[in-house]
Specification:
Number of helices: 3
Number of strands: 8
Distance between the termini: 25 Å
Shape: elongated
CATH architecture of the largest domain: Roll
Largest sheet: 4 strands, mixed
CATH superfamily of the largest domain: 2,3-Dihydroxybiphenyl 1,2-Dioxygenase, domain 1
GO molecular function: metal ion binding; methylmalonyl-CoA epimerase activity
Order of helices and strands: EHEEEHEHEEE
Radius of gyration: 16 Å
Family: Belongs to the methylmalonyl-CoA epimerase family.
Helix content: 10-25%
CATH class of the largest domain: Alpha Beta
Keywords: Metal-binding
Structural class: alpha/beta
Protein name: Putative methylmalonyl-CoA epimerase
Domain VOC: 2-130
Length: 137
Amino acid sequence: MKIEHIGIAVRSLEVSIPLYSRLLGVPCYKTEEVGSEGVITAFFAAGEGKVELLEDNGASGVISRYIDKKGEGIHHIAFAVTDIWAEMARLKAEGFELLQDEPKRGADNKLVCFVHPKSANGVLVELCQDAGELMGS
């Protein structure tokens, strides 16, 4: 199974769409108002999956209440990359703060690096690359 999308609560699509476009290296391909939920969404392709940003369509909707209680975002979202060092360099050049200067070994035979939540609207982003032969496994 693949991750179809991860939903991320945001205060402002106007602020968040450019941020996620830089983070993911792709433009937002669709925005949509979902009247039944009282939200406006913005979608980004992320490999085989999608990231969905959700902004409240009013001041007192479900997304606003979530953000009031928990703040923007989710705990973390992991994205697979083919060259973690190149992606780390690209993100640094875009102004994102990384939590490590070098990738470290993570679970499931991965090299990982995290982008600080302050750089991505409160979402802890994980970059991960299959370590394969790089780690002698």
